[in-house]
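Chapter review: from sequence to fold.
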Amino acid sequence: MTLRKHRPQTKAAVIFMLVLFFLGAQVVWWLIFLSDQIKNASEQRIRGWLTDRQTIQRLLDESPKQKRRWLEICRQHYPHLHCSSDGITLRPESFWEIRERGDRSMRMFLFESVFFVLVIAGGLVLLAQSIRTERELQTRQSNFLSAVSHELRTPISTMRLALETLQYRDIPKEKQTHYLDRLRANLDRLQATFEQVLAAAMLEEHGNNKRIEQHDLGALVARYIEQNRTDLEERGGVLSWRSAPAPVFVRVDPLGFEIILNNLLNNAIKHNPHPQKHIALAVHEIGRYGVLQVDDDGPGIPATEHQRIFDAFYRIGDELKRQSGGLGLGLYLVKSLAENMGGGVSVDALEQGSRFEVRLPRVSAPSFGIK
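The token string follows.
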């Protein structure tokens, strides 16, 4: 799999280097050709000047009585010659002038060639980046479709099996409760999947249609924990919560913030292989922002992935070896929703696990009904 994956990239890199080599060789050849042309043109001009000198000198020698007239003609029409009664010679400054003209032409061609190479190389680089981005997007979309298929097929199959068991078998009451709990859990999983997809679709379609209100950030977090603590603890989450000493009022879309919290906490539990998944939440202020901090003790995120994990459909690791479910939309929604509220999100590595910080614009005093 690895060889097949990297072969197209290696082939593209080889083609790119060959194009650059051919382009450089063409420029060098043109410079050599132009240098020869300039040299030949200079030599031809000097030969012409020598012919002019010989012609004027012969006219002076053959017509002594018209010497003054020929000298006047020489001074007027042959500026490259030094015309005097003692003889006709080539002016030294004429040689410097023709050399300077050749050097100037070479500098002009060299500048134009370098500029041409840079423009072509820049265009090739941009084209390569566009192709790479398009390929990555196609890969992510393919992974997304595979993930959606898995996220839908697995709970549906489990639900079908549980329903058939309840329908065609006579099972004890406690077993019925077990199968009903499984049905409820898989329904919750399906609902979460649809909510992720719908939230991403609505964000793309109506990114600016949000209801901004002023709320105490700590109160929002405390309310969410109170409503969801039981479910999180049943999945192995061990929550600790530290609020700010004083209320931190922020401009926030409550529904969007709930999606942010839900995705961060679900990720902290889902991708943590430990039986107990410790999650620490805190609220504090940094400058003009109120900050929600979420720490986990999971396997952590490589520094090279800190920017890419917020891209739509992107998931770390090999899809064929993946053990945790998901669509690659959770952190994309976190980032997009936070930015739509005027804030942002960042991730840092801890000694054990990761730290996510969600920033939201802070307000000095509460007032209600602000859009």
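Two observations follow directly from the output. Residues 164 and 270 are 29 Å apart (CA to CA). Residues 2-138 form one domain.
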